Amino acid sequence: MKKILLLACVIGLTSCFSSDDFLDPKTTALTEETVFSDSTRTVAFLYRIYSDIGFSYTKGRWDSHGNTEEATDDAEYRYSGTGQKAVILYSGTVSPTNFPFFEFWSTPYNNIRRVNLLLEKLPNAPLSAPMKAQMVAEARFLRAWYYHWLLISFGGVPLVGDKVYDITDFINLPRNSYADCVSYLVKELDEAAAVLPKSTDYSEQNYGKATRGACLALKSRILLYAASPLFNGGAETQNADLAKIVSNPTYDVAHWQKAADAAMAVMNSGEYSLYKDNTTAPGYGFYQVFLNRVNPEFIIFQNRSANRDMEGFYNMPTRGGAYNAMPTQNLVDAFPMKNGKAISDASSGYDPNNPYKNRDPRFEYSIVYNESMYYLASANAQRQVLTYENAPSDGFTQAGQTTGYYSRKMCDANISSNSSFTTNRGWSLMRYAEVLLNYAEAINETGKTDLAYAPLIALRDRAGITAGDDKLYGLKANMTKEQMREIIRNERRVELAFEDHRWNDIRRWKIAMDVSNGYNKRMRIIKNANNTYTYQVTESIRRHNFRPEMYLLPIPDSEVRKAPAMLQNPGW
User: Fold this and answer.
1) How confident is the model at residue 18 (pLDDT cuts 50, 70, 90)?
2) Which InterPro entries match (predicted)?
3) CB contact set of 336 (below 8 Å; sequence gap of 6+)
C-alpha cells in the first residue's frame, strides 16, 4: 500500500518533495485507496492542484528576495547584496547551477503528476459520471496551464502524457519539440473546452474553477507566444535539432493568424467584458477590477479571501509595506497623456516641469508619485505621499535604491499594509484585457493593421482616455504595421504593468538585449524654497545585464544531470 507521500512527490521529473501537500503523511495516514475511495477527498485532491495555479505570480512576485519584474526596465529591487533572486537575474549572473526560480521547473511537473494520478484513479472514485467528466476536463486544463509556464520559460520540454511515474523510476526523457508541445496543449484545451461550462453557468461557490472561456484564453496566450519572435524562427542556436526543441525553427506568419483566431474566439464568446466605470472617475473601472473578486473581466485568477496582499508587498514605508518592485522612470514615461498621445509627442501637452498632470488615468492608479494621496493609518484618512529628496515621509535618496516612485497597481488606496482594513480581491492571472491585446498584436503582425484599432480603442476608452474629435483616443490614423507594433507593445506594458508579463514579453519579443542592458531611470525631485519642485531624471544605482542565452532560462543543472537525454538550452 503506497502512502500519499509517494503519490504527490515529484519535483521536476525525478526528485521527491511534498512538504506543501495537503495530504502530507506527517499529519494524516491517508493512502491512495482511502483518498480515491472517498468522494470528498477525491475532489479535495483536485483542489490541491488548483492551489498552485498562481505559483508564477507567487514565486515571481511575493518572494522577499526579489522577482522577475525587477530584472526588467519596469522596476528596481529595493535591496542590495548578492545571491538574491532579483540580483541574480538583473545582474546577468544566472546559470544552471544557481537558477533562482527552481519552482518554475519543479512546481509545474509536480502538478502535472498530480493531474495524471487523478486521471488514473478517477474512474473508480465514488462520483457521478457527469462529475467525473467535468473533473477530467478541469484537470486537463490545469495540466495545460502548468505546461504552458514551462514553455514560456524553457521552450520545449518532456511531455509525459498520462503516465504516472513512481519514485523508484529512472526518468530519462528527451525534450519534445516546441511545435509538438504547442500542438499537444492546443488539443488538450480544445477537448477540455468542449466539456467545461461557461463561467456564468457555475454556481457562486464554484466561481474561479476552470471554464470553457479559460481554455480558449489560455490557448490564445500559448499561440501568441508561439508566433512571437523568440519562438517563431528566433532560436539562439545554430544546432538544428536544438532549434526545433526551443522554437518553431523557421518563421511563419500563419502562427500569428492562429493566435489572432484564438483570441477572436474568446472575444466572440460573449463570456467576458472589460470592467468599465468612467462615471465615478475617469478610468475607475481599471482601478476597481483588481479590488473585486467577482467581475466580468477575470478569466483565470487565484481566489483570495479578505486580504492586504498587494498593500503588504507594494506600500511605501509610512504605510507599513515592503515597497518591493519600485517603478522606474522608464515605466512612468510609457504612460501617455489623458488625450492618449505619447509624452514625446509635441502636441500631447506634456510639461516636464509638471510631469504628472493630465496623464492617462491608469498612471494615477498604477504609480504612487510625489503628492499622491494614499491612506495613512495614523490619520485614518488619505494623506499625501512625499517622494522628493529627503522628504520626511517616503523621500528619494541619491545613494539609495529608491526610484522616486512606489507601486499602486492592484492596491486599494483606502487601506494600507498597517491598517486593519482588508479588500476581498482575487489575484488576476489572466483577464479579458490581455485577450484584447493578444488579438491586436497578432492581427497586426498578419498585416491587417486596421483591425488592431478596435481592441486598443476599447482599452483606452475603459482607461478614461479622451476620445478626441477623430474618436481614436490618441491613436494615429493609418499607422503602418511597424508603428502599430510599437503602440501595442507600449499599451501592453501600461495596461498589464506588474501583472507578471514584462519579463516574459521582453524575452519573447527579443528586445531584452536593448531594454534590459544598462541603467534604468529614476526621478530625483528637489523641493525649492518657494515650495515648487525641480525634476531631474537620473540613472539607477545598479546596472542591468542581459545575455543572449537568457532569452530562454537554463534548465536547473540538477535536473539535466538526472536525465542525460534532456538537452540543456542554448548557451548554457
Assistant:
1) very low
2) SusD-like_N, SusD_RagB_dom, TPR-like_helical_dom_sf
3) 342, 343, 348, 359, 360, 465, 474, 494
